[in-house]
Amino acid sequence: MSDAPVLVVGAGPAGLGAALALAQAGVPVVLTEQRDAIGGAIHRQPASPQVPKVLRPARHARSFAMLAAGLAAAGGRIDLRTSTVFLGLDGADNALIDDRRRQRVEALSPAGIILATGAVEKVHPFPGWELPGVMTAGGAQVLLKETGRAPDGPVLVAGSGPLLLAVAAQLAAAGNPPVAVLERGRPWRRPTALAAMLASPANVAEGVGYAARLLRHGVPYVTGAAVTAVRTQGDDLDVMVRHGAAERTYRVRHLLVHDGLRAGASTGITETRDGPVPVLLAGDGREILGADAAVADGRRAAAEMLALLGRGAASAGDEQTLGAARRFQAALARLCEAPPPSPPPETLVCRCEGLRVADLDHLRPDASMRELRLVGRFGMGPCQGRFCGASVAALRPDADPSLKASAVPRWPVRPVSLASLAGFGDPAARTNPRIHQDTEDR
Amino acid sequence: MTGTFFWQGRRVPFGEGQTLAAALLAAGLRDLGGPDGRPARIFCGIGACQACAVTVEGLGVVEACLTPAVDGMRLGPAMTGDDHV
User: Fold this and answer.
1) Which pLDDT tens digit goes with each residue over A125-143?
2) Is residue A82 part of a domain?
3) Between chains, do A120 and B43 touch, taking CB under 8 Å as contact?
4) Considering A228, A261, A294, which residue would you say is the last residue of a domain?
5) Above 0.90 for ipTM, yes or no?
6) According to the lineage, what is the superkingdom (chain B) (predicted)?
């Protein structure tokens, strides 16, 4: 039986949950994190102790403290590598990781891989979404947690989903309440979805707290309103909004957009259980269940990995937690469900390659995903379709998704410097599978 | 570490532990596009969208939202080589 470590990618709640469960079962773990600190987007810590704390639920702070304490207690069983970016799998099932601090690419030969790389935000494209000043609401939230500082000048928050409320409340608490929150859906018209959410009181209380904060700051929460276009106006943005039959323009400095979260997009790699190196997904990168359930889903993935490696039972007893989270997320999805306005021809779809809706319209109506990529070049840039892939799929709902350009994304899934790669062929850079022994000696 | 890095030669101050993205935004530098015309700016904050990729002298292309600022770093738009750093 091999003592090779299990590689866990991403030190957010799911990755930490998985790593701790594996370590408790006596399995060595290499835990990589692209940032310089653990926590992931949800538990992004202030850049320094001087940074003001951002409004957030106490249960998140408690959960993170428990995970951090568990990591400290695990000692040498978990080899944590921060500032290390997962580049993908090579043809021989090696996991390639880029230590950005030491500028060195390494190939690990793990016993199994758990990808806990989180969700990616959905952003339905509209003309001007690519302009400076337009950010995702989640991206702005991560920056706010890091700096404690809200962006200067008027901010508009728009799109769909509960994150709009959270970010708006956090901006208000940080001293810059948004001019408005525009929700495309009409949640008040979905009483059954609202009622179903009451089964998760902690989440409801969190939402009510955010709403109360917005009310106190006089931030309007406008439902049934959608952004149709954005234009640059000097240093500002003119945001065109459709609200029922009415149109209005907001002049702001920043537009924060968000249309929900998407799983499976951060690496594009899918689960495999029958290969020599099983690959499992965990957390919001597998299924959008939220931060609380992500820890449980990490444990679930760890238990399944242990079973696949012949080292334990397949269940960690977290099914009830995951089921409740699944029902809550389904209710949330129903609550805010509303189709986005269809983007006009000039709308940029694929930022990396500079391709617009009109470019997509020029391709054969029955083109497969493979053709859209290889002929149309959609999703062929640095993001490899992680961001634009969903937009392309929404605009071409009939394109056969099984005919992708390649089933497994080619490495590197992220940029890597030639200098870092140069040392890669050097046998000294290839890590011994029994890597845990090195870490235990430290 | 607190210090200064350079965006296309312009001095950008940063605070302890800050990423390049946080410091660039605080300095009002929102457009990270280069001469190739590809729109670039800080967008997703989690290293996924690649819209904030920048070229850092000696490091190559990295995501500004993930990269801790270091005193004296020289950076510029991605994919343009060191001429624009």
Assistant:
1) 999 999 999 999 999 999 9
2) yes
3) no
4) A261
5) yes
6) Bacteria
